Amino acid sequence: MAVTLSIVATETSVLTFISIPAVSYQGNLTFIQIALGYVIGRVVVALVMIPAYYKGAMETAYHFLGHRFGQNMRNVASITFMGTRLLADGVRLFATAIPLALIIKGSGFFSSLSDSQFYLISIVLIGCITVFYTSFGGIKSVIWVDMIQWTIYIGGAILACVIILTKLPNGLNDVIELTVKSGKTDWLYLGADLTLREFIKQPYTFITAVFGGAVFSLASHGTDQLIVQRVLTCGNLRSGQKAIAWSGFIVLFQFLLFLVVGLLLFTYYKGQDCQQLGVLRPDAIFPKFIVEVMPTGISGLIVAALFAAAMSTLAGSLSSLSSSTVLDIYVPVFGKDKSQAQLLTISRIVTFIWAVMLMGTAIVFINLKGTVVETALGIASYTYGGLLGIFLLGLFYKRASQKDAIIGFIVALITMTILIRSINLAWPLYTLTGSLTTIAIGIISSIIFKSKDATAGTEK
């Protein structure tokens, strides 16, 4: 159970806590279909992929790329992942700045500033603190600390539900009456009334959400080193399989809990929009409730947990981005003769540069349309598609070479970019589209180039 909770704690962040309630506040419960897909995907990972890891017959994607296809493929993937990591963590930094902006605004200082300017101050403040302790030692996070923070998240959400129910005149009856009448409790949407073009744009139809969520889990929990390492700490295969499978059910419960929080907030605030509530975006509604309504000590504990978890994640990201830049790019090209002291200085400079870029990215997201959690999942899905595709191509198609993998990966990124921009493809389909495109183009490339090589050999 400890490993199961550590997996859930690892993937739970400030995005889940503040943004999932915003999804149901604005819409309904159809997001839960994504979590159903997560359950299915993790069961497949438990039955198919985890046994191979325990036997030593399979490596995680990051190791596999270098061994199977060579360093060039790994470098191409690394640069892509660094770019998407910058975008995804920029979203996380912005999300963390939301409650801090509300606190600063509520203090009465700088009362003449706009909401966007409060967000800007919060982003820079959190970014500067994070880069400082990342450069000078950092914070060591352990499984138990993650679990404590996760417990605070869940406890805070449950407490918020209790507080809202006690403040409503008729308690749960008020929630049922308003949310059912407004269609907020709808959780299943088949999309049978949509044309194909509209269907692939809609993220929360049953097939798109469940299938997309399942494929996303195959990539995120079947190939990611961070997750697989935790599973392998279990004493035996059966325990590892249980850990990964049960994590899906706990995440399902977690998403449902935060979606219910959104329905309760909708009832408490009588369905007021962001402008009426005095917030810039829907992601700020739950933080507004925490800061203004929940008991001071409890709200302080929740906000502190949000900051600690978020800055720990951001510090780890800055550290990995800096290490990857220095070790994978700088040292092989420019720094072969540099001493350890010189490399340490360069590493700190690079960390600062990444931090500035991260803050700049977060600032761009201030005027983001939609919720931050959907944006973050879309960014992750964009990368996971190519990663999963390369992983499966190398694992099951032995004829594929490094050239084939690189071509497949690049074409997949281009294809997804075109589809996203031209037809507004639903984000749960990113991973599926990217992985299938990578595999298909990789196979076609191997056939074409092998034929050319064979023809060249004959002519000789």
Q: Main beta sheet, described?
A: none
Tally the helices.
Answer: 19
Percent helix, as a range, is over 70%
Q: How many structurally independent domains?
A: 1
Q: Quick one: how many beta strands?
A: 0
CATH topology: Sodium/glucose cotransporter
CATH class: Mainly Alpha
Low-confidence stretches: 137-142, 454-460
CATH homology superfamily: Sodium/glucose cotransporter
What is the mean pLDDT? 82
Can you give a write-up of this model?
- With 460 residues, this protein is mainly alpha-helical.
- The protein has one domain: Sodium/glucose cotransporter (Up-down Bundle), CATH 1.20.1730.10.
- It has helices at residues 2-11, 14-26, 32-55, 61-69, 71-106, 115-135, 143-167, 172-181, 196-199, 206-222, 225-232, 237-268, 274-277, 285-292, 296-333, 340-364, 372-396, 402-423, 430-459.
- Helix 5 (71-106) runs antiparallel to helix 15 (296-333) and helix 17 packs parallel to helix 19.
- The longest helix is centred in the last third of the chain and has 38 residues, at 296-333.
